[in-house]
Amino acid sequence: MVPGRSRVARLFGISPLGPESRPWYLGALGEREVARLLDQLGADWHAIHSVPVGTSGSDIDHVLVGPGGVYTVNSKFHDGARVWVAGRSLLVNGQRKDHLRNAAFEARRASKLITRAAGSPVHVSAIIAIVGARSLTIRAQPAEVAVLSSVRMVRWLKQRPAVLNEEEVRHIAGTVMRSSTWGSQSAPDADLSAFATLRDAVVAAKRRRVLWAVGVVLSPFVVMTVTFIGSVLVPMGAHLN
What we know:
Keywords: Membrane, Transmembrane, Transmembrane helix. It comes from Microbacterium horticulturae. This is Nuclease-related domain-containing protein. The protein has a five-stranded mixed sheet. Strands 6-5-4-8 form a four-stranded mixed sheet, with no helix packed on it. The protein has two domains: 63 residues; 153 residues, no CATH class. The N and C termini lie far apart (68 Å). A hairpin with a 2-residue loop joins β5 and β6. It has six helices and nine strands; from the N terminus they run ααββββββαβββααα. The mean pLDDT is 81. It is α/β, with parallel strands linked by helices. α2 packs parallel to α4. Helices cover 45% and strands 23% of the residues.
């Protein structure tokens, strides 16, 4: 949870995010961007967001069902980072991450749960959508996971060969939407609009900090200008008197 801020904190543009909430916020920021892009796929595709799994509070960022198949999509926000992928390795700014292993496990788990609920085998593929990275270098795509930049993801999905007909898509999408499929008490989220209020507060705080910084930089010049004008006008006034 993000704690509230005092009036003074808001005045000086102190971010509503603390050290604990910032990673969650960045993750949610990436999740919202990927959700926005997935919703552009059109009526043939069904994107279900924030799918709760089990009772421990874990969830899947997005489950996607369409003619091109069924996918779990894991959003990864790496703002300004250099991401490098080769086979079984994924590095962010030179640091190895567990994204590939986690995404593959997530897809296998989703396949088992959807298959059981749907009553017929449903294969689920894994996608990692990289958001905000400075660069994404892919030497070789991993065997089990497709790693894509978020901006390229929609085109990539539209190019997938059709493996499901309209009836199968509708049946599987309905199965995904049921909380009982995932052993959860809550249903998947249709949208992420509740996040908008926090995002607006973070953006507003940043703008206020920028204004304060500009004011601090400009204040010596303002004082110097006023002093200079005063030093010119005072002698002129004395002369006129």
